[in-house]
Amino acid sequence: MTTLEDTDMHTFGTELPAMFDGVKLAAVATVLYIIVRCLNLKSPTAPPEITCQDTPLSRYLLKSCPMLTKEYIPPLLWGKSGHLQTALYCKMGRVNTPTPCGVRKFLPMHDGATASFDIFEARGEHSTGDDITMVICPGIGNHSEKNYIRTFVDYSQRQGYRCAVLNHLGALPDVELTSPRMFTYGCTWEYAAMVGYIKRAFPQTSLVVVGFSLGGNIVLKFLGENRSNQDRVLCCVSVCQGYSALRAQETFLQWDQCRRLYNFVLADKMRKLILSHRNNLLRLNFSNIGDADLGRLCAATSLMQIDDCIMRKFHGYSSVTEYYENESCVRHIHKVTVPLLLVNSSDDPLVHQSLLAIPRTLAEKMPNTTFALTQHGGHLGFFEGAVLFPEPLTWIDKVIVEYTDAICHWEKKRPACQRSSHPGIDSRLQSTALTPSG
């Protein structure tokens, strides 16, 4: 009996190392599988999908902007994950961020608020020899000191552009509110004040309108609200926006692509920002915000709840639905006649695929609009690089300047008698719709 037991134990003991090796191998294989799936490593790189009408301007742009027709290649190990692109943009911003030196301006608004923006002068002559100013609207709760804005401004300055960057009302940590109101999803007042100042201070300058995320909604709404807002505007670029707040917030309640988690994180960011101004919001005259509203704010777990209890009340909307419908650029974008470049990423975890039908349809119907959809890039990421480390400049930084340069040269070549009209609507743009890909 003892002999048999000893023999069985000896046999089992010799099999243990092989069993452990098998378990280790299975564990490694599982981890590798999860990494490949999560990092989307099997996804191929590709040029952006371009939607536009076949016009002389669109053909010129696709020829003059090779970055719109060549492969966008993100960093191999992590750049194909929209979540990592988005997370690294949020935490890291950009690599080796420069520190451009600007002048901060403050403008009083009609309701007692004080708009602020920074002006950064060009660090060289533009290739056309003209005076051109980029008027930039950052993303939600952002300002000129954010890394991605500083990187883009520095690059634009070196290409001969003056830059004016709006600081969203209430976003700067060291600037107090002077009225019971903060920036909202679609309020264009502060941006309009900045553009008006630039037009007055630099009467010879032409304007390039640029908006990132929420800023994209604001700039397109601004241009479409009034035809005169497009005067002296050469073109507009909108990056990673959702176009319709109502439809976007509905998708933000879904767990697909972890949007509900992103919703919670953004809501927490907005809650902290609002509470940092609670004294001014409560004590200033004519405030629509009360203690009960701030109590609901503290319990909010989504942007829609915050918009309902706080943001819509800044402008007197009776419901959050009315607020979203009136503040979204989707109601105004078809009135914009200057050349438009709308850029989104397929793996943007904040912008649902269904929202991309808006810019795609617009580009199919409007001769002034080009819609570029990348396969990778996340939300405002668009990092480029070989394997692990990204380059200091991102794909979107270079695309915006390349597109703007092309528009500036296109406008420069036009007869002087045509330059007073909007470059997106002259007879040379009228033709049948075409949707070229990559």
UniProtKB/TrEMBL annotation:
Regions of compositional bias (Polar residues) in chain numbering: 428-438
Per the record's keyword annotation, is Ligase included, yes or no?
Answer: no
Protein name, entry field: Monoacylglycerol lipase ABHD2
Compartments annotated for it: namely: Cell membrane
| Provenance organism | Labrus bergylta (ballan wrasse)
Please name the PANTHER family in this protein's record: ABHYDROLASE DOMAIN-CONTAINING PROTEIN (PTHR10794), MONOACYLGLYCEROL LIPASE ABHD2 (PTHR10794:SF79)
Topological category with respect to the lipid bilayer: Single-pass type II membrane protein
* Pfam families named among the record's database cross-references: Abhydrolase_1
Q: Name one GO cellular component term.
A: sperm plasma membrane
Catalysed reaction, written as an equation:
hexadecanoate ester + H2O = an aliphatic alcohol + hexadecanoate + H(+); a butanoate ester + H2O = an aliphatic alcohol + butanoate + H(+); a triacylglycerol + H2O = a diacylglycerol + a fatty acid + H(+); an acetyl ester + H2O = an aliphatic alcohol + acetate + H(+)
Q: Which InterPro entries match?
A: AB_hydrolase_1, AB_hydrolase_4_CS, AB_hydrolase_4_sf, AB_hydrolase_fold, ABHD4
Which EC number(s) are documented for this chain? 3.1.1.23, 3.1.1.6, 3.1.1.79
